[in-house]
Amino acid sequence: MRAAAAYLDARQTWWSAWPTAGRDHETACVSCHTALPYALARPSLRAALHENGPTSAERKLLDDVVKRVNMWRDVEPFYPDQTVGLPKTSESRGTESVLNALVLATRDAAAGTPSDEARVAFDNMWALQFRRGKPAGSWAWLNFHLEPWEADDAAYFGATLAAVAVGTEPGGYASRPEIQERVGALRTFLRQDVATQSAFNRAVLLWAASVLPDLLTSAERGAIADSLFARQNPDGGWALARLGDWKRGDGTTLDTASDGYATGIVTFALRRAGHAPNEPRLASALAWLAKHQDSATGKWLATSLNRQRDPATAAANFMSDAATGFAILALTYRSP
C-alpha cells in the first residue's frame, strides 16, 4: 500500500505541475485518468496507512477544485470554444461540474460531514443538467473520441459519476426534497438504455447503484454482475478491451490480457454491489490484484484503448494511474 501511495502522490504532483494540465487561476484540469482516481483512492490509502491528513498533492487538488467551484462564473472552461471549437465550452462545463461534485463528495464522505463547497458544486452541476429530449437527466460531456472516458458514449459514464457523487455526499443529500426532480431525471436517463451500454459503463452503473437508492432493482444488479463475471479471464482478472467494442485509432491490436484498470474497477463495483471477498470469483480477482502490483514502481499496469504508446513517455502512465487508483479501491473496500 505504501508503494502505491508513493506512486499516486508522485503522479498527481507531476500532473498538477504539468503545463498541459494547467488551467487559469493557477489550477489544473481534473482528469479522469489521473486526478479523479487519485481523489477517490487517496482517502482509502490514508486510512490503511494510518496517516493523519491529506498529502500535499491531495491538498493541492482539493484546493484547485474548491477554487474553481467558488469562482465558477469567472474561471475559464477546461477547453474553451474559442481555442478548441464548438461545443467544447458546454462539454467542459458539464464534465467539470460532475467531477467537482464527485471529488468534494468523496472528501466529505471521508470526513463524515457535508460541506458548503460541495453544496455549491452540486448547485453548479444541477444547473447544467439537460432537461429536455433524449439526453434529459444527463450532462454535456467531453468527447475527443478517446475511449473510455471522452468518447461517443461517455455521457452515460459521466451520468453514472453524477449518481455516485449524489449518493456519496453525506448528510442524506440524495434524499433532500429540493433535488428530487433532478435526481429522478438522472435515474430515468441511466435506466433507459442500460441494455445497450458497454460492459464498462454498466460496471460503473453497478457502483452508482450501490450508493444511490432505487437506481437498479436487485434483479438488474444481478444481471449486470453476471454479465461482468462472464467476461472474467481464467486468471481472475478482466481486460479493458473486453468491456466494450473498441478499436485503436492507430490500427494496433488491443491488449486482451487482464489489466489493472479493468480488474480494479470491476472488482470494486462488484464488492460495492455486495459480493463477498470469499466468493470464489471475487477471491480470484482480488488475488490477481494482489499478485500484479509492479514491485519496482508500486503501480498496476494498464494500456491505452486508443493507441499503442511509448512506455517511456509520461502519457503512457495515464491508464496505469487509473489502474492503481481503482486497484486500491478494490483492495481496501470494506463492507458497511
Question: Could you provide a short overview of the structure?
Answer:
With 336 residues, this protein is mainly α.
What descriptive keywords fit this protein?
336 residues, mainly alpha, two-stranded antiparallel ribbon
Topology diagram in text:
Layout: H1 2-17, E1 22-23, E2 27-28, H2 35-48, H3 56-70, H4 81-84, H5 88-111, H6 116-127, H7 154-168, H8 180-192, H9 199-209, H10 218-229, H11 260-272, H12 280-291, H13 318-332
Antiparallel strand pairs: 1-2
Helix pairs in contact: 1-2, 1-3, 1-13, 2-5, 2-13, 3-5, 5-6, 5-7, 7-8, 7-9, 9-10, 9-11, 11-12, 11-13
Describe this entry's structure for a reader.
- This protein has 336 residues and is mainly alpha-helical.
- The protein has one domain (2-332): Glycosyltransferase (Alpha/alpha barrel), CATH 1.50.10.20.
- It is 52% helix and 1% strand.
- It has 13 helices and 2 strands, in the order αββαααααααααααα.
- It has helices at 2-17, 35-48, 56-70, 81-84, 88-111, 116-127, 154-168, 180-192, 199-209, 218-229, 260-272, 280-291, 318-332; strands at residues 22-23, 27-28.
- It has a two-stranded antiparallel ribbon with strand order 1-2.
- A hairpin with a 3-residue loop joins strand 1 and strand 2 (27-28).
- Helix 7 crosses helix 8.
- It is globular, with a radius of gyration of 19 Å.
- The two termini are 21 Å apart.
- The mean pLDDT is 97.
Strand content: under 5%
Molecular shape: globular
CATH fold name: Glycosyltransferase
For the largest beta-sheet, the strand count, sense and barrel status come to: 2 strands, antiparallel
Q: Report the radius of gyration as a whole number of Å.
A: 19 Å
The termini sit apart by 21 Å
> Low-confidence stretches at least 5 residues in length (pLDDT < 50)?
none
